[in-house]
Amino acid sequence: MKQVNRQWVLASRPQGRATLSNFEFREVPLQEPELRDGQILVRNRVFSCAPTMRNWMNDSRRSYRASIGIGEPIIGVAGAEIVSSRHAGYPVGSLVTSVSRWEDFTVLEPDTAAVPVYPVPSGVTLADAMGPFSLNSMTAYFGLFRVARPSPGEIVVVSGAGGSVGSVACQLAKHHGCTVIGIAGGKSKCDWLLSACGVDHAIDYKSENVSERLGALCPQGVDVFFDNVGGEILQAVMDNIAAKGRVAVCGQVAAYDSDTPAPGPRDMMKVVYWRVRIEGFVLGDFFGQIDQARTDIDRWRKEGNLVFRQDVRRGFKNLPAAFLDLFTGGNQGALLVTADADGAGL
Q1: Domain locations in the chain?
Q2: How far apart are CA 160 and CA 334, in angstroms?
Q3: Contact 3, 28 (CB under 8 A)
Q4: Is 4-131+309-338 a domain of CATH 3.90.180.10?
């Protein structure tokens, strides 16, 4: 085992948009820990960058699930190899995906973890575990089918459609027989949604008026909105929501870099009279159904009904810069960073 554990820690809390100065690189001495029963030691091989991690960088008053302490490693999803274990269900040498930390080695307690430590099935690579079978894919699946519940023929709008959650939600809705409109930033992302993901329409929020375009495309209103972004895009959809429309609130990217709470719709009486259902969710609501979701997604992928795009950056030292790209549109698909500069382990 390495004698040094590389870490990226939170140097300061962002005031508005996060910057490189909010992160600090450290190398700390590493001695193999004496594990307690139920614990495992993992070597993190690949890290997934997700916008929600920005929320965890706030203090505990503004962070809903976790708040990273100053000087503590950044929290995020990782794909890892088990190097030591005192848990019968997690043998040495097997692979897992879990909420871990930005460091080479982390001790996990699967039985008490707020987000389960998922064993990677035999024959599945970490690349697939962090792509088709990732927590992001599961989030899209459950948000669409268990929360929004569209019917074939309905109009489904997805914000953040070029990202790892949004692009899967678009494709699942299309496969389900819905008319799908993806909202993304930039022509290249919109072109990819149309050509690769098969959406019916793509709206570039950077160059188009989202509300006006939705009004033209959806004269009878939007039936389902899968919301990854919130803010003005949420308002634009609510301006065009159909009676008995459903909004599945997955994330609020527009507010993560803000010092104020995420705003809701400006006219709540419309929610009353249009009988609109707005429901937030987290993946933990559906842990018992993960195997079914994986089976469905694997079948649709093999049938050619799902495509996945990964933006892989190499090298542990590139983690903060890669993460910041999420908030400028600098990524193309699911953003992954390998621990090793040569990309080994993915």
Answers
A1: 4-131+309-338, 135-284
A2: 12
A3: no
A4: yes
Question: Side chain identity at 174, as an amino acid letter?
Answer: K
Q: How many CA atoms, within 13 angstroms, populate the side-chain half-sphere of residue 278?
A: 16
Pairwise CA distance, residues 188 & 244, whole Å = 33
Which two structure tokens, joined as six digits, stand for 338? Answer: 């390998």
Rg (CA), the chain: 20
In angstroms, the CA 192 to CA 164 distance is 13
Q: Which two tokens stand for residue 311?
A: 């933006």
Q: What are phi and psi of 184, to 5 degrees?
A: -145, 170
d(CA 346, CA 341): 11
Tokens 């590389």 sit on residue: 6
The verdict on domain 135-284 having CATH code 3.30.1540.20 is: no
pLDDT by residue, tens only, the chain of 346 residues: 558 999 999 999 998 889 999 999 999 998 888 999 999 999 999 999 988 899 889 887 766 667 899 999 999 999 999 999 999 999 999 999 999 999 999 999 999 998 889 899 888 889 899 989 998 999 999 999 999 999 999 999 999 999 889 999 999 999 999 999 999 999 999 999 999 999 999 999 999 999 999 999 999 999 999 999 999 999 999 999 999 999 999 998 887 776 677 889 999 999 999 999 999 998 888 988 988 999 999 999 999 999 998 899 999 999 999 999 988 877 877 899 999 988 777 7
